[in-house]
Amino acid sequence: MSVWDDLQGQDPVVAQLRRGAADARPNHAWLFTGPPGSGRSNAARAFAAALVCEQQDPELRGCGECKSCRTVLAGSHADVASVTTEKVTISIDEARELVRKAQDKPSTGRWRVIIVEDADRMQERSTNVLLKAIEEPPPRTIWLLCAPSPGDVLVTIRSRCRPVGLRLPPVEDVAELLIRRDAIDPEVALNAARAAQSHIGVAKRLATDEGARQRRESIVRLPLSLRNVSGAMKAAADLVALAEAEAASSFEQRDAAEKEALLASLGAPATGTLPPALRSQVKRLEEDQVRRAKRSKNDYFDRALTDLLSFYRDVLMIQLGGSGPLVNEGLRRELDEFAAYGSPEQTLMRMEEINTVRRRLVTTNVAPLLAIEAMALSLL
Length: 380
Prior knowledge:
The protein has helices at about 10-20, 40-50, 65-75, 90-100, 125-135, 155-160, 170-180, 185-195, 200-210, 210-220, 230-265, 275-320, 330-340, 345-365, 370-380; strands at about 30-35, 80-85, 110-115, 140-145, 160-165. With about 375 residues, it is an alpha/beta fold.
């Protein structure tokens, strides 16, 4: 199984990366961009595996079978360092640690590879720490940065990187991946891929988690209850509750497991008060978990609003007489009825209101409930 197999619908990108891995002197810095769900982090990891692959034939690099390929994909290769923040931003200390690692010579392979999966989450001062290292990297170090778009990275960084642009794969390709890789029923896989709008990670969650499917359907149906002010306020509260429930389901168990593992590694007592020497370490973990929870909630609010946006996308398609498949095909009758009571101009204005709230939740400290209540009122 090749490292490229999970890059569904990205044939031009795979060809570009194969050539880069086969090159005796590949570019020292690469910028992987694409919308959420396009697989930019998977592409960067696959490329890292191909760069350190043990195959002597350049055309075969990225075989997926050698020890180097397998350890890169498992996240344990000595020459491949990766930072994946689950907090709101990548700290300057994390950036400095990456720069330090970049100075090390590769221990086993041809290259030392540094992957920054959330380059868009670096503040300007953190990015400036990386700039010098990317401008003048050690001769055997390659940087792989990932971000949603080139504009999310400082121009001084992206001007020194070779661009790799990914797109969302076709729904059929995502469904085929779920069937082949995860043994999902074909009909379930296709419905999940369509509902996820080709986001591979979300599609897998929808295909394997009945609760996630039910929460998504509740969100998509919210516009059907927007008939008056009280209905709009209730719909906003319901959307916030659903997004928070989805976020909580993803990190509560993990937080508890992390704390239990930390206490076990520290030799802490199972019950009773912690010794003072251990409290600071537990407090640091809890602070990290709070920051991660904030980012998770922001991400799930954005996902919930994206699902809501798909309702109006389908309505607009019906109003314009489009013949393509709907994202929410199961709601065809309700969507037809809803589309008959409005115009394409009204639908576009509603979609813009949703996108405005998505931007506000990311760029400001607005309370989610207040922002979504205002949005719900504008959708009446």
